[in-house]
């Protein structure tokens, strides 16, 4: 029984880390999500082309995440799936809604 617990605990570091979008507050107003876009201009450009870049902004009464750009594939009554290149970027950097 102890062996099973040890095996279960040892497998935890091997699990993939899922990054979650932080709550949009005054402390991070103006920051971009995914976080890599704040430090790497190339990542910001590629994510904005895919329509996956969001910025923490102040609305009238509260803070909220808003998209910086929208991809044409996201428009219309039935939005299409992202292209394979965009899907790979979302998997690498973590996309909206995570």
Mean pLDDT value: 81
Query: SSE order in H/E notation?
Result: HEHEEH
Alpha carbon gap, first and last residue: 35 Å
Number of helical elements: 3
How many domains would you count in the coordinates?
Answer: 1
Shape: globular
Uncertain segments of ≥5 residues (pLDDT<50)? Answer: 3-16
Largest sheet: 3 strands, antiparallel
Compute the number of strand runs: 3
The fraction of residues assigned to DSSP E strands is 5-15%
Radius of gyration: 17 Å
Helix fraction bin: 25-40%
Structural class: alpha+beta
In what order do the strands lie side by side in the largest sheet? 1-2-3
Your description of this structure?
The protein is an alpha+beta fold and 98 residues long. A hairpin with a 4-residue loop joins strand 2 and strand 3. The N terminus is likely disordered.
Summary tags:
98 residues, three-stranded antiparallel beta sheet, 30% helix, disordered N terminus
State the gist of this model:
With about 100 residues, the chain is of the alpha+beta class. The protein contains three helices and three strands, in the order αβαββα.
């Amino acid at each position: 029984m102890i062996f099973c617990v040890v095996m279960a605990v040892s497998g935890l570091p091997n699990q993939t880390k899922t990054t979650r979008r932080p709550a949009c507050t005054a402390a991070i107003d103006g920051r971009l999500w995914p976080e890599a876009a704040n430090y790497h201009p190339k990542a910001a450009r590629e994510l904005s082309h895919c329509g996956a870049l969001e910025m923490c902004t102040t609305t009238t009464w509260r803070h909220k995440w808003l998209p910086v750009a929208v991809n044409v594939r996201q428009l219309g009554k039935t939005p299409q799936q992202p292209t394979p290149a965009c899907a790979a970027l979302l998997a690498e950097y973590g996309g909206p809604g995570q």
